[in-house]
Amino acid sequence: MKEKKFVSDNIKKLLVTEYLRSENDNAGFGGMEMKRTPFGTNITLHVNRPGLVIGRHGVKIKEMTEILEKKYGLESPQIEVKEVENPDLNPQIISKKIALSLEKGWNYRKAGNTTLRRIMDQHARGVLIRIGGKISGERARTQKFMFGEIKYSGEPARSGVEGGFSTAMLKTGVIGIYVKLLRTDYELPDEIHINSDVRVVNTENTKEKEEVDDNGGVKN
Fold this sequence. Notes:
6 helices, globular
């Protein structure tokens, strides 16, 4: 029973995420956090333009709250909107910008390299951009753009790497854009920090020097 509930909860969270992403795509959807509390379900939306999510007099956010409660069965949903501090370090917003650039007619190499340079200017620790689909012909393939460090497994990959995914609708077909970003505040297990503020204290030798006489004895 616990396994079924775990699966159903994750499916519900995925459906809620897809709904909120589609509703707030034009506002620069940057991710979502959902937590259950004794008072209901708290949902935090990270967006680039919060005004478009809230709507005039809060009409849009009220509509989304009603749909989440009636259609998706969330208990007393409460939506909080937060503005993304740096959109160039949010993988979901980055992937959406690349998708929009491809739909405007940009070449995939230009879109990938331009985005990579913009992320590097923000002093990111590591980034991986993967563009897949019919990007240069009838056969589908994948092109990667990389910089810095990216972890693929273990605890650093689970807690230190954030991901975002978007799609671009082109005449040749659907293009998938996947972005991985290593958080700037995450400390890797193999990092070593040397404390340069350590003070070196010179201690004088307080032991009395022993004097040796000519016969090999010790003088006090």
